[in-house]
Queue: 4 jobs
Job 1
Amino acid sequence: MSKILVVDDAEFLRVRLTKMLTADGHDVHQAENGLKAVATYKDIHPDLVLMDVTMPEMDGLTALKEIVKFDPKARVMMLTALGQESVVLEAIKSGARDFVVKPFEHDRVMKAIAKLLG
């Protein structure tokens, strides 16, 4: 069982991902913005972070950079809306290991998670 941090300002998406991941046996924690994501990461040291790009208080790219600064080996997968390709490139350059485009397919997310945790 892996510890996964789900970060998104949309509660329905956090709940959907949490249900999906707990059904697969993972220990899931949530944060609704980048500030809380960084604090939660430092507190629980998750095996993987699934993080939205666009959020209030601190966006996902800034949070990604803070997390990677704290833990260069952090495994972070970005969740992006269609049309954010330039943001995806910046995220990869900043340390993101993968990305999933929203709305996402269950199988795509689970395969990406398995790859990153494997």
Job 2
Amino acid sequence: MKLTEQQKKEKIKNLRPIDDVFFEVLAQNTDVCQEMLRTILEDDCLVVASVVTQSDERNIYGRSVRLDALCVLGNGTKCNIEVQRSDNDNHLKRARFNASSITVRDSQQGTTFDEILELYIVYISEFDFLKGNKTIYHLEKVVRETGVVVDDGLHEIFVNTAIDDGTDIAELMSCFTKKEVKNPKFPKLSSEVTRLKETDGGVQIVCEVMQQYEKIAIQKDHVEKIQKMIKKGYSKEEILDLDYTEEEYAEAEQKNKSENSSQRY
């Protein structure tokens, strides 16, 4: 059912910066990303030159790679910002997978390993899954025998909205859980949240991204149903007769093959 303009505004009114759809639209604003990263990385001189969002790169990096906002900083360093509300995954391995995918995809063939890109992963969650009662965690590689920190160009920062330690980072995180953001410490974020919720142009932009997410959710549901039908012995013709697409069938078939392969090892 098609929503009226008023219904769209009501739905958008309940969104928060931590929500996938709303964050993706917020992240299209480089000034907003710059304000966030200056706070989280504690660098007032940091510059965000450009941002690529999930919808822009969904098919380039692959469906399983989560790129809510891949920022290119002024010095060429890259920083992927991800927001995560659900707590049903291995977050450390998820961050590692995304970092590896970005590194491989963005590294030029023939370059030396010295030239592999510098990459920051900023992972924002609604829960303190590291359970240290901290707002922010910086993960580092340390030589066990000497205690020396090793710099391999990957920097992982995990931030959460659950713990308030009284810092500016915690105050920024509190903004992520609010439907209205009007904080003078974060003028770019506050202004963009207001624009996206209270202007016709902003509402339209958010609606377009919502529709993309709904389309992806429907396709995922279709693929899962097709997987089950394939396992039960339905033929391709029988499945396609139920108005599923060739693309959905091919994805379901590939997923079943991958699952069968992994079970053999």
Job 3
Amino acid sequence: MRNIAISLVLGAILLSPGVGGANDKKKDVPVAPLPAVIVNAKKIFLSNGGGSNFAYDAFYSKMKEWGKYEIVGSPEEADLIVELSYRVEDKGTRVWSSTNTYNNTTQVHSAQIIDPQLILTIYDARTKNSLWSETDHRRLARREKNREKETVNSAQRPVDDLTTRVSVPQ
């Protein structure tokens, strides 16, 4: 009963206007347009920057499904080079303890802190200058099936963001 009461109080605090108002500020910021080179490009070369073939395959599939750009077989034929990299950043180990006041015992816990990331970088094919970069932090999942699903979702988000930003007036 006590846990239910605590949950209700925490829920009420999180849903109150003072706390929820912070999310409204993010919605007030307009989406910035992409550089004109990216918007006006016709042909792209998709490059696997390494880390996960599965993530690259999912990204390639979503870009092809979008159909905005013609995907070409070499950087020389392209207007843009779009590179997707998958990295898992190791941020160390978190250690904490908990005390059971009922039997006065203390347990020490530890967990490895990792951050799987998909990094999208768009280069100008002629100058090789970086034009745009975006990082998506994939959600953690314990089961392999869920990790695959989260990887596909993570590969979809940069494509969705590109779709939105390409349609923003210059």
Job 4
Amino acid sequence: MSKISISKLPTKAPEKLDKDKIKSEREKITYEIGELALKMHAEKKHSLLVVFQGMDSSGKDGVSRKTFRYCAPSWTNAHAFGKPTDLEFAHDFLWRVHPLAPKKGDISIFIRSHYEDVLIQRVHKWITPKRVAARMNAINAWEKLLKEDNNTTVLKFFLNLSYEKQGKKLQERIDDPERNWKHKDGDWEERKHWKKYMKCYEDVLNESEIPWINVPADQRWYRDYFVAKEVHKVLKKMNPQLPILETKPTFD
């Protein structure tokens, strides 16, 4: 298999797409995602783990909100991974992740994920190359465990935002009062390491046993549609069915 090069992956929608039609199609798809998720929850044979990774402002929160808007919170759980706490640092790096994996019938959404521990920590040289390799092996083994032992489908999305678009979106957080709350000085600091991040992301894409899906993320309308289409495809393939009573109980 040829190596993936991020510089050759698209960040924008194909030309001549009708934006309004795509948004209308996404609305239809997301509604069907809600119906399929209900059946999966009732059937309790499958589970789904959705991983969103991408640079700051690539839209991890936005796309998760749009994709699962018709799914009930009781069977759809989202978790945003930030800097580990002292307790989490005192354990192995997967310790904080495993309890958040979905049980049968549920969907778990990771906004950032266990891959942070082979991305930001590697960029800043907080861990050695040897430890990075060991962690990738552990990640592959963990995802394989979820798949084979609990019938969990792992969907991993790389939100591929261009350097130019990120700069515009980060500046909007400064210029637009309604987006000021999103601004963090640290996002600009991390931007200085863009090339290092792309190298680390590239290695993750190439070394993962469960493949990543590249999502062109420069345009929100296409990004949201693209992700919804992939989630919908996976749920349809599961073909979940509502359980039917084999015998009808009678009551006096």
